[in-house]
Amino acid sequence: MWPNRRLLDLFGIEHPIVQAPMATASDVEIAVAVARAGGLGSLPAGTIDPEKLREHLSAFRASAPGKPVNVNFFTHRIPTPNNAREAAWREALKPYYAEYGIDPSAPVATANRAPFNAAHCEVVEALKPEVVSFHYGLPALDLLARVKAAQCRVMCSATTVAEAKHLFQGGCDAIIAQGNEAGGHRGMFLTDDLAAQQGTFALIPQVADAVSVPVIAAGGIGDARGIAAALVLGAAGVQIGTAYLHCPEARVSKSHRDLLRSAGEHPTVVTNVMTGRPARGFVNRVMRELGPISAIAPEFPLAAAALAPLAAETKDTGEFAPLWAGEAVSLGVELPAGELTRKLAHDAQALLHRMAG
User: How far is Cα 273 from Cα 46, in angstroms, rounded to an integer?
Assistant: First the structure.
């Protein structure tokens, strides 16, 4: 009943719904539930080591035999150390350290975000996930060639038409058009100009016109109306993240879940103070007082390391932890991930049928 089968045929799924790979907030359980319901389940690999990824992929295969899976990797540049900038950031955080009795001179742990590398690629080659996706652009050509040689479909996020064309020319099998409304990190890689990022529903038709591979819409899509609108505008499918944060399987803190439940009362903004890279989430104390955009926040992912001790001390409130969410957060409903996937598919098909009639 879907009007566009390009994504269904490409990935071997029943519904053109991709569960966004939300690092730390989603894992095997939610990916399995979405896959069993006919969508494309995703496993985030940007914050875990290759051995843990191997475990997660093996667990997915055991729980959802025969179902395709997407594994997502970061491709950010490893930051160049900038002692002055990092010292300025620590100085800005110093009053908070004092408030919570944390030694401001104590060394901080390294942020656990690694770009796609040869060790990750070996896991991909061994376990051959059907889909491999990237955030922040494509990896090195030799690594990308190895992924494609393993017969994996490749997709990547684009936040502008120029980025979409770049990914198409780079060999992507599908392109995720990520609009400004999306929760979490912007996938931008050809520009760092936030003002250049368009909204999802302006971006979709322009990307669909610019490339000949299937386009997946992401950002501000939280119910059947958003899915139908994206498909009408030229997308072959949608990637949904925030709506799945409402599911019981989501690995979110109590403070994060409380905000999700009262989302209409709390704004989301794009900030760089949580990690050093622009991302959309609920406003918390550090975003209000030092941001939302700060010129001294160190490069991704260094800003997060200095915040980690404060996040640990305030885990019940989330005032120093990322609470990612997109602009359609108030549309979310608390359903198990599989049930939500089936409801979104059913309701979107019904709406499209009524529109066609």
Answer: 19
